[in-house]
Specification:
alpha/beta, 380 residues, Rossmann fold
Length: 380
Protein backbone atom coordinates (compact mmCIF):
# COMPACT_ATOMS: atom_id res chain seq x y z
CA UNK A 1 0.00 0.00 0.00
CA UNK A 2 1.45 3.35 -1.01
CA UNK A 3 1.66 6.07 1.54
CA UNK A 4 0.39 9.53 0.58
CA UNK A 5 3.04 11.89 -0.62
CA UNK A 6 3.72 14.81 1.68
CA UNK A 7 2.96 18.34 0.68
CA UNK A 8 5.84 20.56 -0.46
CA UNK A 9 7.51 22.04 2.57
CA UNK A 10 9.22 25.44 2.72
CA UNK A 11 12.92 25.49 3.35
CA UNK A 12 14.00 24.70 6.82
CA UNK A 13 15.76 27.99 7.23
CA UNK A 14 12.56 29.90 6.57
CA UNK A 15 10.85 28.17 9.37
CA UNK A 16 13.77 28.64 11.63
CA UNK A 17 13.97 32.31 10.75
CA UNK A 18 10.27 32.74 11.18
CA UNK A 19 10.61 31.15 14.57
CA UNK A 20 13.55 33.38 15.41
CA UNK A 21 11.78 36.52 14.27
CA UNK A 22 13.44 36.75 10.73
CA UNK A 23 11.55 38.36 7.84
CA UNK A 24 9.07 36.07 6.01
CA UNK A 25 9.88 34.94 2.45
CA UNK A 26 8.26 36.63 -0.50
CA UNK A 27 5.08 35.21 -1.93
CA UNK A 28 6.39 34.69 -5.50
CA UNK A 29 7.57 31.15 -6.22
CA UNK A 30 10.42 32.16 -8.60
CA UNK A 31 12.26 33.95 -5.82
CA UNK A 32 11.97 31.15 -3.31
CA UNK A 33 14.99 29.22 -4.47
CA UNK A 34 17.23 32.27 -5.05
CA UNK A 35 16.73 34.27 -1.89
CA UNK A 36 16.53 31.40 0.53
CA UNK A 37 19.38 29.27 -0.74
CA UNK A 38 22.08 28.22 1.65
CA UNK A 39 19.84 28.14 4.68
CA UNK A 40 20.85 25.97 7.65
CA UNK A 41 20.08 22.25 7.36
CA UNK A 42 16.84 20.77 8.56
CA UNK A 43 18.42 19.18 11.58
CA UNK A 44 18.32 22.49 13.44
CA UNK A 45 14.59 22.60 14.13
CA UNK A 46 12.93 20.74 16.97
CA UNK A 47 10.82 17.65 16.82
CA UNK A 48 7.68 19.64 17.43
CA UNK A 49 8.17 21.52 14.10
CA UNK A 50 8.72 18.42 12.02
CA UNK A 51 5.80 17.15 9.98
CA UNK A 52 4.05 13.96 10.98
CA UNK A 53 5.54 11.98 8.09
CA UNK A 54 9.08 12.76 9.24
CA UNK A 55 8.53 10.78 12.46
CA UNK A 56 6.37 7.65 12.23
CA UNK A 57 3.75 6.54 14.67
CA UNK A 58 6.17 4.49 16.70
CA UNK A 59 7.96 7.74 17.66
CA UNK A 60 4.86 9.03 19.44
CA UNK A 61 6.21 7.68 22.68
CA UNK A 62 8.74 10.48 22.56
CA UNK A 63 5.90 12.97 22.15
CA UNK A 64 4.02 11.43 25.07
CA UNK A 65 7.07 11.78 27.21
CA UNK A 66 7.41 15.41 26.08
CA UNK A 67 3.97 16.16 27.42
CA UNK A 68 0.30 16.41 26.39
CA UNK A 69 0.80 19.68 24.47
CA UNK A 70 3.36 18.17 22.13
CA UNK A 71 1.15 15.14 21.56
CA UNK A 72 -1.83 17.33 20.67
CA UNK A 73 0.30 19.39 18.21
CA UNK A 74 1.48 16.22 16.50
CA UNK A 75 -2.06 14.98 16.10
CA UNK A 76 -3.19 18.24 14.48
CA UNK A 77 -0.25 18.22 12.07
CA UNK A 78 -0.92 14.60 10.99
CA UNK A 79 -4.61 15.35 10.47
CA UNK A 80 -3.74 18.34 8.26
CA UNK A 81 -1.38 16.33 6.10
CA UNK A 82 -3.88 13.55 5.66
CA UNK A 83 -6.58 15.95 4.50
CA UNK A 84 -4.17 17.53 2.03
CA UNK A 85 -3.33 14.15 0.53
CA UNK A 86 -6.97 13.40 0.04
CA UNK A 87 -7.56 16.74 -1.76
CA UNK A 88 -4.72 16.07 -4.23
CA UNK A 89 -6.90 13.49 -5.99
CA UNK A 90 -5.20 10.41 -4.69
CA UNK A 91 -8.34 8.48 -3.98
CA UNK A 92 -6.74 5.13 -3.49
CA UNK A 93 -4.50 6.12 -0.61
CA UNK A 94 -5.89 4.93 2.67
CA UNK A 95 -5.93 7.10 5.73
CA UNK A 96 -3.94 5.65 8.61
CA UNK A 97 -5.13 7.13 11.90
CA UNK A 98 -2.86 7.61 14.86
CA UNK A 99 -3.02 4.99 17.54
CA UNK A 100 -4.77 5.92 20.76
CA UNK A 101 -2.43 7.07 23.45
CA UNK A 102 -1.72 4.65 26.20
CA UNK A 103 -2.35 5.59 29.80
CA UNK A 104 0.58 7.04 31.58
CA UNK A 105 1.70 5.03 34.59
CA UNK A 106 0.72 6.61 37.87
CA UNK A 107 3.37 7.59 40.26
CA UNK A 108 4.03 5.01 42.94
CA UNK A 109 3.01 6.12 46.41
CA UNK A 110 5.75 7.06 48.75
CA UNK A 111 6.32 4.47 51.43
CA UNK A 112 4.99 5.29 54.87
CA UNK A 113 8.06 5.32 57.02
CA UNK A 114 6.03 5.60 60.22
CA UNK A 115 3.91 2.41 59.66
CA UNK A 116 4.99 -0.84 61.15
CA UNK A 117 6.47 -3.46 58.78
CA UNK A 118 3.92 -5.88 57.31
CA UNK A 119 0.92 -3.55 57.77
CA UNK A 120 -1.13 -2.41 54.80
CA UNK A 121 -0.54 1.18 53.75
CA UNK A 122 -3.52 3.50 53.44
CA UNK A 123 -3.16 5.46 50.24
CA UNK A 124 -6.62 7.01 50.24
CA UNK A 125 -8.94 8.60 52.80
CA UNK A 126 -11.74 6.21 51.73
CA UNK A 127 -9.67 3.13 52.58
CA UNK A 128 -11.28 2.57 56.02
CA UNK A 129 -11.03 -0.69 57.92
CA UNK A 130 -13.89 -2.82 59.28
CA UNK A 131 -13.12 -1.83 62.86
CA UNK A 132 -13.59 1.88 62.11
CA UNK A 133 -16.88 1.20 60.33
CA UNK A 134 -18.10 -0.90 63.23
CA UNK A 135 -17.17 1.76 65.78
CA UNK A 136 -18.91 4.46 63.78
CA UNK A 137 -22.04 2.32 63.47
CA UNK A 138 -22.05 1.58 67.20
CA UNK A 139 -21.66 5.26 68.02
CA UNK A 140 -24.56 6.09 65.73
CA UNK A 141 -26.77 3.49 67.37
CA UNK A 142 -25.89 4.80 70.82
CA UNK A 143 -26.76 8.33 69.79
CA UNK A 144 -30.07 7.15 68.33
CA UNK A 145 -30.99 5.26 71.49
CA UNK A 146 -30.15 8.28 73.59
CA UNK A 147 -32.47 10.46 71.50
CA UNK A 148 -35.26 7.91 71.73
CA UNK A 149 -34.92 7.76 75.52
CA UNK A 150 -34.93 11.51 75.78
CA UNK A 151 -38.14 11.92 73.78
CA UNK A 152 -40.00 8.98 75.40
CA UNK A 153 -39.24 9.66 79.06
CA UNK A 154 -42.82 10.80 79.82
CA UNK A 155 -44.36 7.80 78.11
CA UNK A 156 -42.04 5.43 79.94
CA UNK A 157 -42.85 7.09 83.28
CA UNK A 158 -46.59 6.77 82.65
CA UNK A 159 -46.17 3.16 81.62
CA UNK A 160 -44.20 2.43 84.76
CA UNK A 161 -46.97 3.92 86.89
CA UNK A 162 -49.63 1.78 85.21
CA UNK A 163 -47.52 -1.35 85.50
CA UNK A 164 -46.88 -0.64 89.16
CA UNK A 165 -50.60 -0.17 89.85
CA UNK A 166 -51.52 -3.35 87.98
CA UNK A 167 -48.83 -5.29 89.81
CA UNK A 168 -50.11 -3.99 93.16
CA UNK A 169 -53.68 -5.02 92.39
CA UNK A 170 -52.53 -8.42 91.21
CA UNK A 171 -50.45 -8.99 94.31
CA UNK A 172 -53.34 -7.90 96.54
CA UNK A 173 -55.75 -10.27 94.79
CA UNK A 174 -53.32 -13.17 95.00
CA UNK A 175 -52.66 -12.44 98.65
CA UNK A 176 -56.39 -12.30 99.42
CA UNK A 177 -57.08 -15.54 97.60
CA UNK A 178 -54.16 -17.23 99.28
CA UNK A 179 -55.33 -16.15 102.69
CA UNK A 180 -58.98 -17.03 101.98
CA UNK A 181 -58.10 -20.58 100.95
CA UNK A 182 -55.77 -21.06 103.90
CA UNK A 183 -56.66 -22.27 107.42
CA UNK A 184 -56.61 -18.63 108.54
CA UNK A 185 -60.24 -18.43 107.34
CA UNK A 186 -61.35 -21.86 108.53
CA UNK A 187 -64.90 -22.47 109.83
CA UNK A 188 -65.00 -22.41 113.63
CA UNK A 189 -68.66 -21.58 114.31
CA UNK A 190 -71.98 -22.50 112.55
CA UNK A 191 -75.03 -20.28 113.16
CA UNK A 192 -78.59 -21.29 112.19
CA UNK A 193 -81.12 -18.56 111.40
CA UNK A 194 -84.89 -19.07 110.81
CA UNK A 195 -85.47 -22.21 112.85
CA UNK A 196 -88.83 -22.13 114.63
CA UNK A 197 -90.17 -25.65 114.69
CA UNK A 198 -86.73 -27.21 114.48
CA UNK A 199 -83.91 -27.05 117.03
CA UNK A 200 -81.00 -24.94 115.80
CA UNK A 201 -78.50 -27.07 117.72
CA UNK A 202 -79.60 -30.18 115.84
CA UNK A 203 -78.90 -28.48 112.52
CA UNK A 204 -75.48 -27.24 113.71
CA UNK A 205 -74.51 -30.73 114.87
CA UNK A 206 -75.48 -32.12 111.46
CA UNK A 207 -73.08 -29.69 109.78
CA UNK A 208 -70.17 -30.30 112.14
CA UNK A 209 -68.18 -31.96 109.36
CA UNK A 210 -67.53 -28.52 107.84
CA UNK A 211 -65.64 -27.25 110.90
CA UNK A 212 -62.05 -26.37 110.03
CA UNK A 213 -62.76 -26.06 106.31
CA UNK A 214 -61.78 -22.71 104.71
CA UNK A 215 -64.88 -20.63 104.05
CA UNK A 216 -64.52 -20.60 100.23
CA UNK A 217 -64.10 -24.40 100.24
CA UNK A 218 -67.28 -25.31 102.14
CA UNK A 219 -68.84 -28.31 100.38
CA UNK A 220 -72.41 -27.28 99.48
CA UNK A 221 -73.34 -30.78 98.35
CA UNK A 222 -72.38 -32.15 101.77
CA UNK A 223 -74.46 -29.40 103.45
CA UNK A 224 -77.47 -30.27 101.29
CA UNK A 225 -77.16 -33.96 102.10
CA UNK A 226 -77.13 -33.13 105.82
CA UNK A 227 -80.19 -30.83 105.64
CA UNK A 228 -82.32 -33.30 103.66
CA UNK A 229 -82.75 -35.22 106.93
CA UNK A 230 -84.91 -32.32 108.17
CA UNK A 231 -88.21 -32.41 106.21
CA UNK A 232 -89.40 -29.14 107.73
CA UNK A 233 -86.64 -27.23 105.93
CA UNK A 234 -88.07 -25.90 102.69
CA UNK A 235 -85.12 -23.81 101.49
CA UNK A 236 -81.72 -22.80 102.86
CA UNK A 237 -78.87 -20.45 102.06
CA UNK A 238 -75.22 -20.32 103.17
CA UNK A 239 -73.48 -17.12 104.16
CA UNK A 240 -69.78 -16.79 105.00
CA UNK A 241 -68.81 -14.27 107.63
CA UNK A 242 -65.04 -13.99 107.75
CA UNK A 243 -62.98 -14.90 109.44
CA UNK A 244 -64.51 -18.01 111.04
CA UNK A 245 -68.34 -18.01 110.97
CA UNK A 246 -70.69 -19.93 108.63
CA UNK A 247 -74.34 -18.79 108.70
CA UNK A 248 -77.13 -21.15 107.57
CA UNK A 249 -80.42 -19.39 106.79
CA UNK A 250 -83.38 -21.76 106.53
CA UNK A 251 -87.05 -21.38 105.64
CA UNK A 252 -89.25 -23.93 107.32
CA UNK A 253 -92.23 -25.54 105.68
CA UNK A 254 -95.67 -24.41 106.79
CA UNK A 255 -97.84 -27.41 107.67
CA UNK A 256 -101.48 -26.99 106.63
CA UNK A 257 -103.08 -30.06 108.21
CA UNK A 258 -103.28 -33.77 108.68
CA UNK A 259 -104.22 -36.35 106.11
CA UNK A 260 -105.62 -39.61 107.40
CA UNK A 261 -103.75 -42.59 105.94
CA UNK A 262 -103.41 -46.29 106.80
CA UNK A 263 -100.35 -45.53 108.90
CA UNK A 264 -102.21 -42.85 110.89
CA UNK A 265 -102.28 -39.09 110.51
CA UNK A 266 -99.57 -37.53 108.29
CA UNK A 267 -98.68 -33.89 108.68
CA UNK A 268 -98.28 -32.24 105.24
CA UNK A 269 -97.52 -28.77 103.90
CA UNK A 270 -99.09 -26.93 100.96
CA UNK A 271 -96.92 -28.86 98.48
CA UNK A 272 -98.06 -32.20 99.89
CA UNK A 273 -94.69 -33.00 101.47
CA UNK A 274 -95.09 -35.35 104.44
CA UNK A 275 -93.50 -33.82 107.50
CA UNK A 276 -94.36 -36.37 110.14
CA UNK A 277 -96.75 -39.23 110.83
CA UNK A 278 -98.55 -40.03 114.09
CA UNK A 279 -101.19 -42.53 115.16
CA UNK A 280 -103.42 -39.81 116.57
CA UNK A 281 -104.14 -36.29 115.30
CA UNK A 282 -101.71 -33.63 116.51
CA UNK A 283 -103.21 -30.85 118.60
CA UNK A 284 -103.73 -27.57 116.78
CA UNK A 285 -103.61 -29.14 113.26
CA UNK A 286 -106.78 -29.31 111.12
CA UNK A 287 -107.83 -32.46 109.35
CA UNK A 288 -107.88 -32.24 105.53
CA UNK A 289 -110.79 -33.91 103.79
CA UNK A 290 -109.79 -33.40 100.15
CA UNK A 291 -111.28 -35.31 97.26
CA UNK A 292 -108.54 -36.77 95.09
CA UNK A 293 -105.76 -36.68 97.67
CA UNK A 294 -102.63 -34.53 97.72
CA UNK A 295 -102.14 -34.71 93.94
CA UNK A 296 -105.49 -33.08 93.07
CA UNK A 297 -106.28 -29.45 92.17
CA UNK A 298 -108.60 -29.24 95.16
CA UNK A 299 -105.64 -29.95 97.49
CA UNK A 300 -103.57 -27.22 95.82
CA UNK A 301 -106.43 -24.71 96.28
CA UNK A 302 -106.85 -25.70 99.94
CA UNK A 303 -103.12 -25.27 100.51
CA UNK A 304 -103.16 -21.70 99.05
CA UNK A 305 -106.11 -20.79 101.30
CA UNK A 306 -104.41 -22.10 104.46
CA UNK A 307 -101.19 -20.20 103.70
CA UNK A 308 -103.13 -16.95 103.15
CA UNK A 309 -104.85 -17.07 106.54
CA UNK A 310 -103.45 -15.02 109.44
CA UNK A 311 -101.89 -17.05 112.24
CA UNK A 312 -104.71 -16.37 114.72
CA UNK A 313 -107.41 -17.51 112.29
CA UNK A 314 -105.35 -20.55 111.09
CA UNK A 315 -105.08 -21.67 114.74
CA UNK A 316 -108.95 -21.80 115.00
CA UNK A 317 -109.43 -24.02 111.91
CA UNK A 318 -110.20 -27.63 112.78
CA UNK A 319 -111.19 -29.02 109.39
CA UNK A 320 -110.74 -28.19 105.68
CA UNK A 321 -112.95 -29.73 103.02
CA UNK A 322 -112.86 -29.37 99.23
CA UNK A 323 -114.31 -31.48 96.42
CA UNK A 324 -113.24 -29.05 93.66
CA UNK A 325 -110.86 -26.09 93.47
CA UNK A 326 -113.88 -23.72 93.73
CA UNK A 327 -115.60 -24.94 96.92
CA UNK A 328 -113.05 -24.77 99.70
CA UNK A 329 -114.75 -24.63 103.14
CA UNK A 330 -113.19 -24.09 106.55
CA UNK A 331 -114.60 -25.18 109.92
CA UNK A 332 -113.77 -23.14 113.00
CA UNK A 333 -113.40 -24.97 116.33
CA UNK A 334 -115.49 -24.31 119.41
CA UNK A 335 -118.55 -22.79 117.69
CA UNK A 336 -118.39 -24.99 114.57
CA UNK A 337 -118.92 -21.90 112.44
CA UNK A 338 -118.04 -22.37 108.77
CA UNK A 339 -116.23 -20.12 106.36
CA UNK A 340 -117.33 -20.55 102.75
CA UNK A 341 -114.22 -19.59 100.82
CA UNK A 342 -114.93 -20.65 97.29
CA UNK A 343 -111.85 -20.59 94.97
CA UNK A 344 -108.29 -19.65 95.90
CA UNK A 345 -108.42 -16.45 93.81
CA UNK A 346 -107.71 -13.24 95.75
CA UNK A 347 -107.16 -15.22 98.92
CA UNK A 348 -105.23 -12.36 100.53
CA UNK A 349 -108.19 -9.92 100.15
CA UNK A 350 -110.61 -12.53 101.43
CA UNK A 351 -108.43 -13.20 104.50
CA UNK A 352 -108.22 -9.46 105.29
CA UNK A 353 -112.00 -8.90 105.04
CA UNK A 354 -112.66 -12.06 107.08
CA UNK A 355 -110.42 -10.86 109.88
CA UNK A 356 -112.28 -7.53 109.99
CA UNK A 357 -115.69 -9.23 110.07
CA UNK A 358 -114.67 -11.68 112.78
CA UNK A 359 -113.51 -8.77 114.89
CA UNK A 360 -116.97 -7.16 114.54
CA UNK A 361 -118.95 -10.39 114.90
CA UNK A 362 -117.18 -13.24 116.71
CA UNK A 363 -117.66 -16.87 115.51
CA UNK A 364 -119.74 -17.71 118.60
CA UNK A 365 -122.54 -15.46 117.27
CA UNK A 366 -122.23 -16.52 113.63
CA UNK A 367 -123.05 -19.70 111.77
CA UNK A 368 -121.44 -18.92 108.41
CA UNK A 369 -118.99 -16.39 106.97
CA UNK A 370 -119.34 -16.25 103.19
CA UNK A 371 -116.27 -14.62 101.56
CA UNK A 372 -116.82 -15.94 98.07
CA UNK A 373 -116.91 -12.31 96.91
CA UNK A 374 -113.84 -10.50 98.30
CA UNK A 375 -115.58 -7.09 98.39
CA UNK A 376 -118.66 -8.20 100.38
CA UNK A 377 -118.64 -10.59 103.34
CA UNK A 378 -122.00 -12.27 104.01
CA UNK A 379 -122.63 -13.27 107.60
CA UNK A 380 -125.39 -15.67 108.58
Amino acid sequence: MRRPSPLPQPPVASRGQARAGAPTPPADDHTAGDDWAGVAPADDYSIEDRPVEDHPTEDLSVLREAGPRATESARETQAGSTNSALTDGNDTAPVIPLSSPTALPSAAPAPDSGRAPGSAAKTDAGDVGFREVWRASRARRKALRAEIRRFTVRQRRRRAIWLGAAASVLLLALGTLGAAYSPLFGVERISVVGAQQLAADDISDALATQLGTPLPLVDESAVKAALVAFPLIETYALEARPPHELVVRIVERTPIGLIETRAGYTLVDAAGVALSTAATPSAGMPVLAIAGGIDSDAFAAAGQVMRALPDDIRAQVTEVTASTPDDVTLTLGGSNAQVVWGSADRSADKALNLAKMMAQRPPADVTTYDVTSPEVVVVR
